[in-house]
Structures are given as C-alpha cells and as structure tokens.
Amino acid sequence: MGIRAPREGEQIATMDLDEAIRGRRSARAHTSQPVDEETIRRLIDAAVHAPSATNAQPWAFTVVRDQDLLGRVSDAAKAHLLAAMPAGPRSDRYRSELADPDFHIFYHVPVLIVISETADGPWVVADCALAAENLTLAAHAVGLGTCWIGFAQGYLNMPDGKDALGLPPEWVPVAPIIVGHPTAVPPPVARREPEIRWVG
Ligand SMILES: Cc1cc2nc3c(=O)[nH]c(=O)nc-3n(C[C@H](O)[C@H](O)[C@H](O)COP(=O)(O)O)c2cc1C
Questions:
Q1: How big is the chain by its Cα radius of gyration, in Å?
Q2: What number does the ligand 1 atom closest to the CA of 153 have?
Q3: 135-170: per-residue pLDDT in tens?
Q4: Distances in whole angstroms, Cα of residue 117 to Cα of each of 5, 15, 41, 61, 91
Q5: Which tens digit of pLDDT belongs to each residue from 69-106?
Q6: Fewest Cβ atoms closer than 10 Å to its Cβ: which of 62, 86, 97, 117?
Q7: What whole-number distance in Å separates Cα of residue 61 and Cα of residue 165?
C-alpha cells in the first residue's frame, strides 16, 4: 500500500482497489513540499489509461506550479464567481467564503493540473472526468492528496482564464485538480444510500 509519494526513480506504489476507492478524499490542506515532475508524469499516465468514447482521448493536461499565478487565478476566479452567481440560499452559502480575501480556491497547493477537452463531441466531458478520477486515485495510492476545484472552471473557460494559463482558445477546461502532500488524512465523508432500481 502506498502511503507516501515515490522518490525520484522509485516505482510507483500500488494499493488495493477497494482501499483506493474508499480511502480517496478531497484534500484541502497540503504542505508546501513540491510534487516532483516524475510523479506528476506518472499521475498523468494513469489518467490517460481511462476509457474514452471511440478511444478519442480528447484531453490535454496543463501543469501549473507558479504560486503567484495560482494566487492571481484564485482571485480572478472568485471575482468571476461572485459576479456570475445568482442570489439565493444555495449561492449565499458560498458568497461569504468567496468574498474573503484570504480564501484561496486552490488552498495554496503546490500543483494544479487542469484537464481540458481538446475535441468536440457528446462524450468529451465524460472522457475528461474519467481521466480525472484515474488521476485522483493514482495520487491517493502514492499518498498524495487531490481535490477537483469546480470554483475555477467558470473563469478558466473565459478568454482571460485561458490566457492566464496559456491554454489554446479551442480547449475547454473540464477538471482543475489540485495535487499536494496532505497535512492530514481528511475525515470520511458520508454517502447516502444509493437509489437502485432493478429492472428484470
Ligand atoms: C465536479 C466537482 C467540483 C468540485 N469543486 C470543489 C471546489 O471548488 N472546492 C472544493 O473545496 N471542493 C470541490 N469538490 C470536492 C467535493 O466537495 C468533494 O468531492 C465532496 O465533498 C465529497 O468528498 P470526497 O471527495 O472527500 O469524497 C468538487 C468535486 C467535484 C466532483
């Protein structure tokens, strides 16, 4: 079982599948320790082993490690969300958090990996989401924490957001995933009983 990130040149650890699926948590507190390039490449390699419709593999990965840039994107994404968010009890929950100048949507994490669609089609969002799940499970297996940051998505899909990360205009960012060395194991998050209908 992997409980820490591999050192340079070390084989990536493996983990029991059930343990990986049940043990992965969205991690929002990380140390400032960088994630090395070899490990990032291995996580992306796990991501591209996801299935994709017609094997189109319609994804690209943008790795952002520049902390100043992440801070600027966080500020711009918060402003974008606050301006775009309709009033109402659902959004009021987030409004004060987004208005807090100390709130960093990427939680000061060392790395952001943005998975973007690179093609059109009815299944490209699903394809990118499957790649994202592979990436998060692979990260968990080596003791890294991840969290999908939906708060970033609206801004990253604006021309300014794409410019900020140097994304080609035709790419569509789907999954902004932060990756870091978690400071603690996040507590379990309860799941509801699934509704299951058996047909036949
Ligand atoms: C599409 C998507 C968007 C999310 N956006 C955010 C976000 O912007 N900020 C955040 O802290 N967590 C975000 N999360 C994490 C969820 O809050 C988290 O997955 C959920 O609470 C269940 O917890 P778990 O991932 O630990 O199982 C997002 C998750 C998904 C799948």
A1: 17
A2: 8
A3: 999 999 999 999 999 999 999 999 999 999 999 999
A4: 28, 29, 19, 9, 27
A5: 999 999 999 999 999 988 888 888 889 999 999 999 99
A6: 86
A7: 11
Query: At how many degrees (to 10) do helices 67-84 and 89-99 cross?
Result: 150
Q: Is 77 in the pocket of ligand 1 (CB under 6 A)?
A: no
What is the distance in A from the centroid of ligand 1 to the CA of 114?
Answer: 15
Ligand 1 proximity of 147 Cβ (cutoff 6 Å): yes
- The finding on whether 109 has its CB within 6 A of some atom of ligand 1 is no
Q: What's the one-letter identity of residue 88?
A: G
Q: Is the pTM of this model over 0.85?
A: yes
User: What DSSP designation does 30 have?
Assistant: B
- CA-nearest residue for atom 19, ligand 1, is 26
Cβ atoms 152, 73 nearer than 8 A: yes
Sheet architecture: strand order including 111-117? 59-64, 111-117, 172-180, 145-148
Q: Atom 7 (ligand 1): residue with closest C-alpha?
A: 149
